[in-house]
Design goal:
This protein is α/β, with parallel strands linked by helices and 631 residues long.
Length: 631
């Protein structure tokens, strides 16, 4: 036995009924059916209603289900869950709590606390199939409130976890870097494939299959466009559902693509489709550890996929699949090549099947999973400490007295730690307080950060923009800078920001200053929009939030025809505490959504790579303010 009980918390917003409806339950529960031999009790925590009870009886009889059978609000139900789980585990001594995904991890942390308060030795295994915060940032924008909230919850889960289970080395490296967590607290537990040896089937030599969500990130439209280039050479089957379904059906009809849409199939039926298709095609722009790809490989299907993060980590080009550029002509050419060459299809499909069976087979993964459980239970002391409390009377004290009281408490706590731990604590506290500085200042100022007036950075931009000049402000935020360029310079400014609330506020500000005839704002993802023609592009505290920055700068320059960029970014060497925090392994960035904070040579290199030449460089307020022109 590994422990007395295993508690599995499902992803927030996902129920057993959802697993059943989507045909996933057979596959998802296969791992835990095998783990029953290691735990006398398995408790499954689902946010679903009473309908989950029937599904659990039929498909998960090994588990005790804790669900929202009374239909409480999410908040009320989550308050009840820790006590309910603790009640199920009376008499247990060693319990492992595991998340199915990072999303919803807050509930798992609360369950661990409740179990420990009940005198149970409880460990937390924070498992995720993908880096949740990165996917939210990709969907909603890297500086969005949703991305920040996801990052905070993901960070808290990882910080409290005894061990963190990731599906890939890339994911583990990403989380370790983001949250300054030692790499030895991570274990790699890939997604698994299941299924015994099956009799060979006659594949449809023209059959192309895709399975997954019908959302923008998956780029099924690109796959349809690729198929359109093949004419009648291939038939496309699309399995899945999502908000893009109607648009994709229309696109297929208009493109003359022979496409069959299937909304729901069981895991067994999907495997059968994979075994009967010539090609499994995948055009997603971002993946974690894609289950459908490794399932298709295990079924001996030749995978043709766009070369993208997450996908390239599971496919070896020309051996276990084909990777191509994210263009319809390239994807179509790769699909056409496989359809025209059965020997290529058989060679790649066989190599993929052998690789998937050896690396991702359930018999192998279950042993890696068990070892992670054992390691987590050994590390039960790794979870977080109880929250700090304060006397209510302190709320009525003078500010200096409030500060002194908290400073004394922090100092007393710090002195109880050994020196290196004390340094990590104090520096980590410094990093955690920085966001509060901004929030408090904004509230005190009535809604606008005082840095706008104190740093006077608007002057840098306004002094370089002329009347009538076409300016594109990418990531325009609350619109203060864009309005200043319209009001002070007479420039014609277009601001783009992903957040509708920011855009509404920006438009109101433009009307308030009577420049709405010069300054307009749009909602959009600046990493995806094709920028309009302009003279100058402004990026004020934006670049540091993005990945592949040199490529974006080059694309924006070409698409807009602009001759000049005005850029403001935070610098890494702004204070001795920054590199020291990084050495200590605590958060060192000004904002946890930053992909980088710049060294001078790093920024100059990115500008040069984008064919931009620096013509003015100012270092001020711990930032670089740069004017760069097209070469």
């Amino acid at each position: 036995m590994i422990g007395d009980a295993l508690v599995l918390t499902m992803t927030r917003g996902v129920s057993l009924c959802d697993w059943h409806r989507l045909g996933l339950i057979e596959r998802e529960w296969a791992l835990y059916r095998r783990l029953k031999a290691d735990y006398p009790r398995i408790v499954l925590v689902s946010g679903g209603d009473a309908r989950d009870e029937e599904v659990a009886r039929e498909h998960c009889p090994e588990a005790t289900l804790v669900c929202n059978a009374r239909g409480l609000s999410v908040r009320a139900w989550e308050r009840e869950v820790p006590a309910l789980v603790a009640g199920c585990l009376a008499g247990c001594e060693r319990v492992l709590v595991k998340t199915n995904q990072m999303e919803g991890g807050r509930l798992a942390v609360a369950i661990v606390r409740a179990l420990r308060q009940a005198g149970i030795c409880a460990a937390l295994l924070a498992r995720g199939g993908y880096c949740w915060s990165r996917f939210v940032a990709h969907r909603e924008g890297p500086a969005s409130s949703a991305a920040r909230a996801a990052s905070r919850e993901e960070h808290a889960l990882c910080a409290h976890a005894s061990l963190i289970a990731c599906t890939s080395e890339q994911m583990a490296d990403d989380l370790a870097w983001r949250y300054a967590i030692p790499r030895d607290r991570f274990r790699i537990v890939p997604n698994f494939v299941m299924g015994d040896e099956e009799a060979p089937v006659l594949r449809d030599p023209r059959g192309v299959l895709y399975a997954g969500q019908l959302i923008r990130r998956k780029r099924v439209d690109l796959l349809i466009d690729a198929m359109a280039r093949l004419g009648c050479e291939g038939t496309l089957t699309i399995v899945g559902e999502g908000p893009e379904e109607d648009a994709l059906r229309r696109r297929a009809r208009e493109a003359g693509v022979e496409a069959r849409f299937l909304r729901r199939v069981s895991h067994r039926s999907l495997r059968d489709l994979m075994r009967r298709s010539a090609i499994y095609a995948h055009a997603s722009e971002l993946e974690g550890h894609p289950k459908t790809i490794i399932e298709a490989m295990h079924a001996g299907c030749c995978v043709v996929a766009v070369d993208a993060p997450g996908t390239r980590e599971v496919i070896e080009h020309e051996r276990t699949g084909l990777l191509c550029a994210a263009r319809a002509k390239d994807l179509g050419a790769a699909i056409g090549r496989v359809l025209e060459n059965p020997s290529t299809r058989e060679r790649i499909g066989q190599a993929a099947r052998e690789h998937a069976r050896r690396v991702f087979g359930l018999d192998r993964i279950i042993e890696i999973e068990r070892e992670a459980h054992r390691d987590a239970l050994v590390r039960t002391d790794s979870a977080g400490q109880p929250a700090v409390s304060f006397e209510p009377a302190l709320l009525d004290a003078e500010p200096r007295a409030q500060v002194r009281a908290f400073a004394d408490a922090v100092g007393g706590f710090w002195k109880r730690l050994e020196p290196s731990a004390g340094a990590r604590f104090v520096m980590g506290l410094d990093a955690a307080l920085y966001p509060l500085h901004g929030h408090a200042a904004i509230c005190a100022e009535g809604g606008l950060h005082p840095k706008h007036r104190l740093m006077a950075y608007h002057d840098f931009f306004c002094s370089r923009v002329g009347s009538g000049e076409r300016v594109l402000d990418l990531g325009s935020g609350v619109g203060a800078l864009a309005v200043a360029m319209g009001r002070r310079c007479g420039a014609r400014v277009t601001g783009i920001d992903w957040d509708e609330r920011n855009v509404e506020r920006s438009r109101a500000l433009a009307r308030e200053h009577a420049v709405d005839h010069l300054v307009r704002f749009e909602v959009g993802d600046i990493t995806r929009v094709e920028p309009q023609a302009c003279d100058t592009i402004v990026l004020s505290n934006v670049l540091e939030h993005l990945r592949e920055r040199a490529g974006l700068l080059a694309r924006w320059r070409r698409a807009s025809g602009c001759s000049r960029f005005l850029i403001r970014v935070p610098m890494y060497q702004r204070d001795w505490r920054v590199p020291y925090k990084r050495e200590l392994g605590v958060e060192w960035r000004l904002d946890e959504t930053h992909e980088t904070e710049y060294l001078e040579e790093e920024l100059r290199s990115e500008l040069s790579e984008a064919s931009l030449e620096v013509c003015d460089w100012i270092t001020r307020w711990g930032e670089f303010w740069v004017e760069a022109r097209s070469r």
